Amino acid sequence: MDISMEGRVAFVTGGGGGMGRETARLLAGQGARVAVCDLDGDAAAATGAAIEAAGGIAWTAALDVADPRAVDRAMADAAGALGPVDALVNIAGIYRVAALEDISDADWARMFAVHVDGTFFCCRAALPGMVARRAGAIVNMSSLHALRGQANAAHYAAAKGAIIGLTKSIAREKGKLGIRANAVAPGPIDTELWRGAVPGDELDAAMAKRAEIIPVGRLGRAGEVAQTIVWLLTPAASYITGQTIAIDGGEVMA
Q1: 95 annotated active-site
Q2: Residue 35 backbone phi and psi in degrees, to 5
Q3: I want to staple 187 with a disulfide (CB 3.0 to 4.6 A). Which of 89, 106, 144, 168 is the partner?
Q4: Catalytic residue, candidates 11, 59, 121, 156
Q5: Handedness of CA 95, 140, 128, 84 (dihedral sign)
Q6: Model-level pTM?
C-alpha cells in the first residue's frame, strides 16, 4: 500500500493549529513539501518551524481564505517556493454558537465566507495546475453537523453541508482528468477550536457529557483526523473520490 507523499507539494489551510497543524506535520513526515497557511500568520510559522526542525520542508503565510485575491497570491507564491501544488487540504474554519433567530446577517455571511467561499477559492486556485498535469487530490473539511444538523449552530451546519456538495461536484467534474476530491466529517475533536466554544470552568463537564453519546466513549484527537486526510491524498486511496468520511467515534452510523 503506497502511503508516501514523497516529492509532492501540499497546500494546507488552517495549518496553524489543531487538525491543520497535525495534518501539515504528518504530510511533511511522509515526504511532502508543505505550504502552511493560517489566518494567524504566527501560528502558521510555528507549524512550519516544527516541520523544518523535524527535517521537512515548509513555506508559510498568513491567509484569510475568504479573500479570493489573497488565495490566488498564496497559491502562486507557494508554487513558486515549493513547486506545483498537487495536494490541497482545506481546513480553515470558524465556529459560533447561536439560536437560529439570533444569527445575524453578518454572522451568516462570515460563516459561509470562511467555510464555503474559502474552500471554493482554494479549489479554484489549485485546479488549473492539477488539470494541466492531470493529477491531484483534494480533501475538504466538512463536519458531523453537516450529516445530522446542529441546534444552535445552523449557520455552521449549513456551511459544512455546502462543502459536501462542492466536493462531490469537483469529483464528478474532474475525475476523468486524474483529480480526486473527498471530504472528511469529524465529530467532536479535542482541539483549540472545540475547547474555545466552551467556558473554561465548564470544559471538563462538557467533555464528559459529550463523550457519553459517542460509542467509543471519548472525543477524537487531531492526529486521528490527520491520518485519514493524509491517507486520502496518497495513492493508497486512488479509487476513492466524491466521498464524505465521518471520523466521529461511531456517533453517526449509516
Answers
A1: no
A2: -90, 120
A3: 144
A4: 156
A5: positive
A6: 0.94
